[in-house]
Amino acid sequence: MTAVSRDNRPDIADLLAFYASAGVDEALEEEPVNRFAEAASKPAERAPATVTPTGGSAALPRSTSVSRAEMGERPGAAPVARAQSATATVPDEQQAALARQLATRAASLDELRQHMAAFDGCNLKFTAKNLVFADGNPNAAVMLVGEAPERDEDIEGLPFVGRSGRLLDRMLAAIGLDRTSAYIANVIPWRPPGNRTPTPHETEICRPFIERQIELVNPKVLVNLGGLSANTLLNTTEAILRLRGNWRVHTTAAGIAIPAMPTLHPAYLLRTPAHKKLAWRDFLEVKAKLRALG
Ligand code: URA
Questions:
Q1: Long-range contacts of 163-168 (CB under 8 A, 24+ apart)
Q2: Looking at the predicted structure, is the pLDDT value of residue 1 above 60?
Q3: Sign of torsion, CA 5 8 12 16?
Q4: Which of 94, 136, 99 is CA-nearest to residue 115?
Q5: End-to-end CA distance of the chain
Q6: Which domains are assigned to the chain?
Q7: pLDDT of residue 53
Q8: Which of 147, 229, 268 to mutate to test the pocket of ligand 1 (most atoms within 8 A of CB)?
Q9: What is the 83 CA–ligand 1 centroid distance (Å)?
Q10: Of the candidates 221, 238, 229, 215, which has an alpha carbon nearest to the alpha carbon of residue 266?
Q11: Torsion over CA of 65, 67, 73 and 76, rounded to 10 degrees?
C-alpha cells in the first residue's frame, strides 16, 4: 500500500472538486444536516418519507396550496384533481394522468404555465429553484425543444441561457433567427439535480405539458434538440445520430401534423465540435422548410 504523507492527503478543495465532478454542485440547505443523528435521536418525530414518483425517498415537498384561480381554472369548469398530498405514496401513472388532465385543460400558454407551477407530481420540482417554461416568441414559425434546464437556466428561469444557449443563439443567427423569431422550451421544465439525465418516469410525467405547449404554440416547424426531445416527441427510440437531418412529424393530440427536424443538442456540439457541420446542415434544412412554408 502506498503511504500517504500528511501533506499529500486530500484536503477540502479536493473534496469539493470531487463533488463538482460527480455533479454535486448545489447546497440544498444553508447548514449541513446530519440525517443519521436525527434519525437515531428522534425516531418518533421523523418526518414521514415521501415516496417520489420514481420510487425513491425525498425530503418532504411543498404542498399544492394554490387557489382554483391561481391554477388557471376557468370559472364554471369542473375541478381538476390535485397532485397528491406530500406524504402520499403516489404511483407515477397517477401523476402522469394528472399532468395530462391539467395540460388538456390549459386553454392558453399562461394557463399552462400556471398549471405547471402548481403541479407537485414531478420530484424534480423539489430540487429545482425555478420552473423553466419558455423563452422567445410564442407566435414564431419555429419552436425548438431541448432536454432539461441546467444550472444557469434554473437560476434564471429561462431555457438555454448558459453555454449551450449561447451556442444555440449563434446557430439560430446563422439562419437569420433569434429569440424574437423563435420559441424555445424543454421537455423537462425543472432542472434535474447535477444535470443528470431525466429518468423515463420523469419524462413521462412531464410529457403532457410539452405536448400541450407545442399544441398551443402551433409552430410551422419543430426542432428537436437532442435525443431525449426527439425520442419523446417523435415516437421513436432511434439514436439521435441516426435521426438527425431527416424530417419527421410530430402529431398533436388534435391530430395536427407538424414537420419536425431532429438535430444534435448544443451541449453535445460543445463536447464534439467536429459534428457542428452536421447541425449546420440540419439548420439549413429548417431554414429552407420555413421559406417553403412561407
Ligand atoms: N440544455 C437543455 O436541453 N435545455 C436548456 O435549457 C439548457 C441546456
A1: 163/267, 163/270, 164/265, 164/266, 164/267, 164/270, 165/266, 167/266, 167/269, 167/270, 168/144, 168/225, 168/266
A2: no
A3: negative
A4: 99
A5: 71
A6: 88-293 (3.40.470.10)
A7: 37
A8: 147
A9: 26
A10: 229
A11: 130
Residue 266 alpha carbon to ligand 1 centre in Å: 8
What percent of the chain is predicted at pLDDT more than 90? 69
**Ligand 1 contact, 169 CB (< 6 A):** no
User: CA–CA separation, 115 vs 66, rounded Å?
Assistant: 10
Q: What is the pTM of this model?
A: 0.74
Query: Ligand 1: which of 143, 153, 168, 190 to mutate, most ligand atoms within 8 Å of CB?
Result: 153
148 lines ligand 1 (CB under 6 A): yes
Does the CB atom of residue 164 touch ligand 1 within 6 A?
A: yes
Q: Determine the Cα–Cα distance for residues 40 and 59; give it in Å rounded to an integer.
A: 17
Cell output for 282: 440540419
Q: Whole-angstrom Cα distance, residue 289 to residue 283?
A: 10
- DSSP, res 75: T
Helix (H) or strand (E) holding 36: helix 35-41
Cα torsion for 257, 259, 262, 263, to the nearest 10°? -150
